[in-house]
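Hello Y.,

Per our agreement to keep a running log of every chain we model this quarter, I'm adding this entry. I've kept the format consistent with earlier entries: sequence first, then predicted structure.
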Amino acid sequence: MALKIGRNDLCPCGSGKKNKKCHNIDRLPDNPGTQKTLSKMETYVKEYDSHVVMNEIIGLQLMAENHGKNIRIEEIAVLAAKSLSNGKPGDKAVLREILQREYTAHSMEDPPENLFTENVVFFHGNHIAFPGIAAHTADIFLSFSQVVFNSGTVFPKEFTDEVYQGIGLILELGDQLARMAGLRGNMESIGSKGRMKVCDLQVDFSISELELEELCQKIHVNSKIINQFILDPDVALDVDDSSMMPLLFYPIIYYNGRYYFVLVSNQLNALNEFILRTALKFGCQEVFLKAYREELWGHIRVACAEMKWRETDIKLDPFPDANSPNEAIYSFDHNRLAYVTLDTPLSIPDVSVSIGSEMHPPKMDNRLRNVANTILDEQNRQDCQLLVLQLTDSCGRTRMGRFMKPRDREFRLPFNVHDFLNLSKGEDWEKHSLWKFAKALAKFNSKTQTMGDAVELYSLYKQKSSGFYFSDDIMPDFLAVVPSEGSDLIRGSKIKQNYHASSFLNDGMLGFLPVVSCGDFAPIYKPIRHIGYFIESLESFRSPIWMTSYQVKDHGMAGIVRLYTNALSFWLDQMKPALEAVLNPHLKLPVEIRLELDPVIFTGMTSQELSEIPKEEYGVAFTDNVLTISIPGSSIWSFTGADNEGERELMRHTLKSFRLLGVTLEDITIEEILNKFMPLGQAKMMLFFDSQEDLMIDRRWLMEPLLLSDAEKEMLMDQLPIWIMEHMVIPEQITTRDDKKQLFNTGTNVLLEKLKEEISRYENAALLVLLLNLHESIVQKREYEKTIIPAQLICFGNKEGKLEEIRENGRMLVRTSVSLRNLIEFLAAQPVKGTLIPSLDDVDRLLALMHEITSFGMMSDAVYFNMDDPEVGILPSGRIGFISDLFSEKMEPFSLANARADIDSKLEDFARRFSIYQPADAGEIPPEVQEYINRHDAAFLADWSVSWSNLNKISYYASNFCIEEEASVITMRESDFIERLVNEAAMPEDQVCAGIEKLVLSPRDSFLKAPDGYSNNEVFPWKYNREFSLTRRFLVRHSNDAGDSMLSWGFRSATAARHQMDYLMRGARLTNGGEEIKKLIGGYADQRGTDFRNVVHDWAAQQEGFEVIGYEVPIMPGATLNADKSYGDVDVLAFHRPSATVFSLECKNTSQAKNIHEMKTEMDRYLGRDGKKGMVHKHLERDTWLNANLGQVQKLLKFDDALTVKSFMISSQVVPTPYIRAGELPMPIVAFPDLKREGVGLLF
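Predicted structure for the entry above:
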C-alpha cells in the first residue's frame, strides 16, 4: 500500500510515467475530443473586458455544482490572467456558450474529496471558507492557526502580526463572496461530472481600493497585506506542472483599481502557503513546524485515548537524529500493542523552489523495523502482536513514500494524520477497530496487490461488511481503488462534528469558543478542547445557552452531570416554539446555566437511603449572566418512577429561573408549556433504576461488552472451504439433500476440530473467567436495552424509522450472546490445558468459530426437517455459496414482524422497568402463598431432590457472594460453596449438592454427546431450551492445579438462570422435570391459556362496533349452540354489528420459536404431521359447524339479518408458521401483537 498519490507524482507501478498518464488513464472523459482546443476562449479573453470574465470565473466557483471541476476553472483563470484587457463590453451569453461547448470535462478531474464549503474559526468568529480540491486544506489551516495563536509557542511578533492580518483579510473576502451567493458552511458538492453550471447572480464580485480600505479598518488590519496574495503580473503563468501554477498561491488579481479573488476556491490552500512562506520569511519556519507536529500529536493522543488505547511506559531506544518523530507504544488488549508514530516535515521550501516537503525524520523504514523487532523479540512478548500505525503529513505538499513489508506478528496501517483524526471522530472506533481492519487488509494484500491509500481501502472494507469480499467471482490479483473513494467518510465526519465557533462570555468579555456537536437529539455542542470544567452549549435560541459544572472530577461524575444537561437541553429544544419569542429578546449575549448538584447525587445509594434524604427545594440565583441552579439530593427520588414528573419539576424550576433574565413567564404559562411539550407521561430523558429490583441491570464491576465482529466472521469465511475440502469435494452445485446435509455436518465437525485446536492454547481458568465476565456485560447490555430502546422511542418518536437500526443492533447482540454462551458451555464440557492468557481479540476469533458451528448446525437441521432446500456449492471466489428461500425470503418477514412485536412489548413493559425494591415483609406468609410454595417445594423435592425454594436460594446466595466480593464473576472451591450455603442459607447439605447438580455445567467426554440419561439435543448449541445451557446452569465446574473442584459464575448469570427457570416453568416448557414437576407445570399451561383468552376478550370488547360474548361459547349437545356432538368451546365469540360479521377467535398462548427445530415442532403441532391431525383440525370443524348453523348463531346474537362467520387463530406471539408454511394456511393465524398495533382491520 502507498501514500496518497498526486496526479503529477510518478506512478508507483514503476513505469516512470506520471500517475495521470499511467494507471489513471481510465479517468479520461467519455468524449476525448472535448479538450481539443481553447482557441475560442483565448480569443474571447483577449477581445472582451476582463472585468466580466473574472466575475464569471468567480461566480463559477460559488456554485456547489462546480465543486470538483476546479481544473477547468483554473485553466480559464490562467487564460484570463494572461490576457487582461479593456476590450469590448462583456457578453455573458457568448462566454457561457464557450464554457458549455469547450469545457465539458477534464481528464485530470476526480470527484472532489473535500466539502464545497467549511466552517473555519478565527478571532472574529465563524467564517465560510472554501477548501477547494487540495487535500486536507481545512484541517491544516485549523492546526496552523492554532499553532500560531494558541499553542504557547513563542514566535516573532512580526510573524504573528502578518499572519493575523493575512488570515483575517482573506477569510473576510471569502465571507463576502459566500454571503453574496447565499452559501453556508459545511456544504456538499452537488454533482461533480459534466458541464459547469453558470452563476446567475447579477452582482460584482470584485472590490475597489476604497472598499478594501473600509473593510480593513473594520477588521483592524493593514490593507497592504493584500499584496501578499496578489498575482505578480510579470510572473510566468505557463508551467509544466499545473500543481505549481502561481495563481494557486497568489489567487487575487489587481486590475483597473479593483481586486478580484479569481481562485477563491483555493482560498484555504493559499492561506496555508501564505503562513508557510511568512514563517520562512521571518526565520521561524522550523520552530513553527515543530509546534505543528506537537499540535497534531496532541490530537493523536486524544484520539487514541478515545479508542481506549492505554499509553504504556515501554521505553524505546533514542532516535538516531535530532529530528525525531513523535512516537509512543499503546496497549489495547492483552498481548496486543500499537506503535504509533507521526512523521511531518520541518522545512517547506518556497513553491518557486520546490513543491515538496523536506526535513522529515530520516530513515523511518529502519526505525519502524527496529522498533517492531525490539518489541516482538522480547522474551516475555513471544505471543505479542503489534500494530504499526504510521501517521504522516506533508503540509499540503507532495511527498513520495514507501512502506516496507511487515514482519511476522506485525501489521501496518499508514494514514495521513488528518484522515486518521477525522475518521476517529466520525467512525466511533473502539479499541479493536483499527486492529481488525489491519488484519483483514494484510490478509487481502497477501493475495491482491492494491493501489490506494488507507482511507480508500478502509471505505471498501466498511462497505463490504468489514472485509474485502467484493463478489462471488475470482478474487482479483490487482486492485486500483477509484480516486476519492472514502472521502465521503471524511466529509460525513465533518458534517457530523459541525465544527464552528460559539459565542461565549469570559470574565464579562465576549469571545468565541470552537465547538463540535455532541448530541443527536438537540443542537448540543462541546468545546474541541477541554477547558478545565464541564461545559456544553445548547444552540436553539438567539445566543447559546451554556450549561456548566465545576464539580466534575472524573468521567463518572461527568456522566451524572450530563444526565441533567441532556434533559435540560432536550426539553428546552422541544419547547422552542413557545419560548423563542419571549426568551430571544433577553439573549443578546450568551447565558450560562451553572448546575450545582448536591454531593449525594454523585454517590450510589439504595432506594432505602434515597427515601431517607430530607426534602429540599431547588435553588436559583443570577449573577453576571450566570444562572445557577442548585439541585437537591432529595430530587433524585422524583426521577426514579416510570413517568417524567421529576423532569417536569426540573424544567418548571428552570423556566421560572428565566424570570431572573427579565423574561416574563407566569406560572400559568409555564404549566401550559409543560403540558403541551412534555405532558405527564413516560417520555423521559433521565433513567434512574433500582438494581436491587433486578440485578441484571446492575452496572458495577463490568467489562466493556465485546460484540462478535464482522471482520473475524469474514476472514473465517475465506478459510472454511479450505478446511472442508480436506474432507470432501465441494462441487459448484450440490444437488441432493443428503449431500447438502453431508456438507453442513462436515462443516460443523471441521469447525469444532478447529475450535478445539485453537482454544487448547489458552489457560483454562483465565479463559473461563474472561468469558464469564464478557457474558455478564452482554446480560447487562441486553437488559438495559429493554429500557433504553422504549425510552428513546417515547422521547424521540420515529419507531418505524428506527426499526432497522434496532434490528441490526439486536442481531449483533443476539449472535454474540448465543456464541458466548455456547463457547462457555464448550469450555465447561472440554476444559483445556494451555498456558496462554487470552486476549479479547483471541476471544473474538473463538466466537466467530462458535457462531459458524451454530449456523451450520441450524442449516443442517433445516435440510433434515425438510424445511429448506438451499442452493449450495463452491463459488469461483473460493467461498461456499448459499441461497436459501427459508432464510432470505421467509425468515426475513418473520424476523421483521418479531422485531415490531418485541418493540411493542418493550414499550408496554416500560413502566415495570422502574420498579423500586421493597424488602420482603418479615411477617407471617399468607396461607395461599404458603400453599403455593409448599406445592412447588414438594414437586421439586420429589423429582430433583432439592426443593424449589432451596434451588432459588442457591442462585440468590451465589449472586450475593459475588456482590460481597465486589466482582461480577468469582471462583470458589466447591466444598467452600457447599459449606457457605449450608451455614448461611440454612440448607440441608444433600439438597445443596442436589441443587448444584441441577445448576452446574461439568466436563464430559464429548461436547456434542450428552451425559447418560439425556438426549443429545440437550447439548447441541444450535438448539434452544437445552438442559445443558448456561441459561439454565449458571455454575461452571472445573479443577485447579491442585485437583480441587472449583465453581465459577457471574451474579447476573445466576439471576438470569433463576428467571429462566421460572419462565420455563410458567410457560410449560421446563424439560427433564420429572412426573411431579410435569403435573405442576400442567396447571400453568391451563392458566396461561385462560389468561390469554381473557386478554383477547377484553381487547376485542374495547373495539368500536364489537360485541363480545362474556364466556367461552360451547358447541355441544344441549348447549346454547346445540350440536350433534361436542365441538369444544369457542374461546372468544365477537360480533361486529355494523358489518354483520361474527368472529370465532381461538386463542393460543404461544412461546416464541427460537430455532429450526422448534419452528418445525410448532408447525407440526398446528398443522399435523405423518397423517396425524394438528390442533387446527378441531378449529376447522368448529368453523364448518358455525357456517352450517347460522340460525343458532343469529339467535344467540339476537340478530335476524344475514351473517358472515370468520374464524382465526390468535397467537400471543408472532409464530413462524404463517411465514414458512408453503401455500395458504387452512385457518388464518394472526399474532396478537400485530392485531393490537394494526387494529381490527387484520380480521376483515
